[in-house]
Amino acid sequence: MISSKRKQELIKEFGKNEKDSGSIEVQIAILTEDIEKLKPHFQTNPKDLHSKRGFIAKIEKRKKYLEYLKNNNYDSYSSLIKKLNIRK
């Protein structure tokens, strides 16, 4: 889990205003931050299958959000991928 302070920073950076936590860009940024924080855990604990299930669910959710953004606002999609350093 990411801290609430870091989450607020992501909302300010990717949202339209400080209270815009629901926009697709913010949700993708928060999921990406969560995924990046969990990666080292699975490198050191490869047999933690219970947590890996939730990790894969977060990846799939982000993938769906990215597909939605790509279909509806390609410019925002391409800039978000560059900012978050996501491979696509």
Write the layout of secondary structure elements.
Elements: H1 4-14, H2 24-44, H3 49-72, H4 74-84
Helix pairs in contact: 1-2, 2-3, 3-4
Please outline what is shown here.
The protein is mainly alpha-helical and 88 residues long. It is built from four helices and no strands. The chain has a single domain (4-84), classed as Helix Hairpins (Orthogonal Bundle).
Structure overview:
With 88 residues, the chain is mainly α. It is built from 4 helices and no strands. The mean pLDDT is 94. The two termini are 24 Å apart. The protein has one domain (4-84): Helix Hairpins (Orthogonal Bundle), CATH 1.10.287.10. Helix 1 (4-14) crosses helix 2, helix 2 runs antiparallel to helix 3 (49-72) and helix 3 (49-72) runs antiparallel to helix 4. 76% of the residues lie in helices and 0% in strands.
Largest sheet: none
Q: β content, as a range?
A: under 5%
The CATH superfamily is S15/NS1, RNA-binding
**Radius of gyration over all CA atoms, rounded:** 14 Å
CATH topology: Helix Hairpins
In CATH, what is the class?
Mainly Alpha
Overall 3D shape = globular
Low-confidence stretches: none
Query: Helix segment count?
Result: 4
Number of domains: 1
Helix/strand-derived category reads: mainly alpha
Query: Which second-level CATH architecture applies?
Result: Orthogonal Bundle
Please name the defining characteristics of this protein.
0% strand, mainly alpha, 88 residues, globular, Helix Hairpins
